[in-house]
Amino acid sequence: MKKIKQMITVLSLLISFTYVQAQITQEPWSASQLMPPKKLADRIQQAQAPMPLIVNIGPQAVIKGSVDVGPAGEKPNIKKLETFLSKEDKNREVVLYCGCCPFDRCPNIRPAFTQIKKMGFKKAKLLDIPKNIKTDWIDKDYPVQ
Question: Average pLDDT in the 34-62 region?
């Protein structure tokens, strides 16, 4: 009886561990593909060439020089992003950003970054906006439209 209880305990722990691991989502980007806001702001302010293509995938294009394709959490806007990027060189640096809400809950960044990877962009970046566009960009007086 004692061995059966031990086996049930071990089995329960294994099932729990497997469930927890399944709940951990792997992001479609790597740490090296995250761009700090200050780095992008400095490049815009200094007009460093070549400039990346900056694409807003959220509710509003705020960053100076960015192109708005709309919230990427909506399928028509993913198609719009795909159509827009289809004309671009796959070697061009492209920086996607949203900033509608905290990074970990954003409904737009994951579908957009997944799409840009599927399209084969070698220099795809995601602007690292952990809180929101106001806190992490506007309040820091970074360049706006």
Answer: 94
